[in-house]
Amino acid sequence: MKVAVAGCCHGALDKMYETLELLQRRHNVRPDLLLCCGDFQAVRNEADLRCMAVPAKYRHMQTFYRYYSGEKKAPVLTVFIGGNHEASNHLQELPYGGWVAPNIYYLGYAGVVRFRGVRIGGISGIFKSHDYRKGHFECPPYNQQTIRSAYHVRNIEVFKLKQLKRPIDIFMSHDWPRSIYHYGNKKQLLKMKSFFRQEVESNTLGSPAASELLQHLKPAYWFSAHLHVKFAAFMQHETSSKDELPKATKFLALDKCLPHRDFLQIIDVEHDPNAGDSLEYDAEWIAVLKATNSLVNVTQSSWNMPEKNGLHAKWDYSVTEEAIKEVLEELNNDLKIPCNFTLTAACYDPSKPQKNMEPVHTINPQTTEFCAQFGLTDINDRIQQAKEEGSGRGECEEEEEEEMDSTGSAEEPSEYNTDNSGLSSFNPDEIMLDDEGGDEDLSTCSVDPSPDHPPEFSTSFSDIRIMPDSMAVSSDDAMDSNNEELEKSGGSKQVEEKSSTERSLKRIGGDEDGNSGVKKIKRRNQAIYAAEDEDK
After folding, report:
1. Is residue 58 within 8 Å of residue 28, measured between CB atoms?
2. Which of its termini does the chain have fewer beta carbons within 10 Å around, N or C?
3. Which of 65, 8, 3, 61 is nearest to 38 (CA)?
4. Measured on CA atoms in the order 438, 440, 441, 442, is the torsion positive or negative?
5. What value does the mean pLDDT take over residues 476-496?
6. Which segments show compositional bias classed as Basic and acidic residues (predicted)?
7. In the beta sheet, which residues pair with residue 279?
8. Where are the alpha helices (DSSP H) in 218-341?
9. Cα-Cα-Cα-Cα dihedral sign, residues 491, 492, 493, 495
10. Is the peptide bond before 451 cis (omega within 30 degrees of 0)?
11. Residue 115 forms beta bridges with which residues?
């Protein structure tokens, strides 16, 4: 089947879907599935904008609300993970995943689903060491700290994913796995993004948690976004035993969703021709959720996951075939995810803007139903209980709380001694938040919708590529001569005209390199939210 993969969407759903429709009209290529690697921005109303961690001047409604209201429907099944620029209050309603709109499914903090027999996993957010060992304690209304920490990856999600034994076909993360740049054309990457050099050379660019998952899961494909540059790599995994077959991962990072950028990729994935067209639960993942349910934490206290160190009676939470069979029996062998989308918030009305709408902590019926069905803890319900009991650890507070030490207590040091989320401090292609709070006010937002006039796709069709059957990428700088060879190998047809292909292959991430000498902290990725692409 054909799978379309997109980078940072930033709420531009109309552009994504119109581009896919153009692909079908011009080249008779229709993807069966669309995957989005974070910064999806499922913003329903003005209150959601207040919960999005971007400077106030970038808070625009965009077009998701039209799909949420039912005015429009996604033309292709869409599965996405969260990034670091999201309506966190909305996604928080679905910690185990669920529908944010008809035909648009969120994977949750971490999740695994199946479509046509293809196993798809993902983890939302970005890595920050000082929040990694905390529980999911945040809830709206957020303060200056929690609006950021709400999207930080937690060790419990990584721990759950590491319990999986069955092969993963596709995995998504927002930030890149650390060290993945050593397995692709690193020289070309640094030519396009010279400000990554220090972190690449010190091996601090990317997420160590994602790197750990990559080495454990060894998926056939791994897709990421976040850094707003297209980059491919090929990682051959080491075998743990002589009997284990060699495994390799084809990694691809996608650019942001803008005209003239390579933000969409089409790949062919082997699937089960006898499988249905519905999105399905993954039985092993459900069994893992049940097995690890006792580890759910909704406090700010830092703690380590169980490990074989003599301090824990149990450290292996992987599941048996019997446990998986029990899940199947509970579902009567019907793994189809119910289409139980429900409106849980008022939808934005352009004719009646409500700039003072406040976010509230909501219990989503989808999560309630899911937890009841599988005997799981409803994280948001637990947070509400802690709030009502006056527990300071799980409480949503307006006032800022004292920051905890990033390494935790002396008895329980952090698993990672860095605080790098995979985003260069000087990446002019990414929105930056002032860590000191600056002049940004969470109480302000812009609700002006993006222009209703669709972009001229006939002049920006380099946004789509069809990936070749093979992504043979040599490690490190063996590909110094040409990054183009990666995309031309395998004889796969391209969806652009030749001139457009050559142009886009050469520029992949735009012309940032020419401006890399000027690094202004206050001048960030304005093009994400602007109607016009600054990279022209």
Report:
1. no
2. C
3. 8
4. negative
5. 39
6. 386-395, 485-510
7. 115
8. 283-291, 321-330
9. negative
10. no
11. 118, 279
Q: Domain segments of the chain: what residues?
A: 2-390
CA–CA distances in Å: residue 337 to residues 75, 78, 163, 281: 18, 14, 22, 6
pLDDT above 70 for 188: yes
For the whole model, what pTM was predicted? 0.79
Please give the pLDDT value at position 391: 52
- Residue 177: the pLDDT is 97
DSSP structural state of residue 310? S
Kindly report the length of the chain. Answer: 536
Q: Closest Cα partner for 106 from 41, 18, 150?
A: 41
Q: Is residue 70 over pLDDT 90?
A: yes
Burial 215-233 (b: 16+ CB within 10 A, else e): eebbbbbbbbbbbbbbbbb
Which residue, 298, 127, 275, is CA-closest to 213? 127
Residues 6+ apart with CB under 8 A from 191: 513
- CB within 8 Å of 413: residues ≥ 6 apart: 407
Q: In the structure encoding, which two tokens stand for residue 119, read together?
A: 């196993």
Using pLDDT thresholds of 50, 70 and 90, give the confidence band for residue 430. low
pLDDT at residue 40 above 80?
A: yes
d(CA 67, CA 77) in angstroms, rounded, equals 13
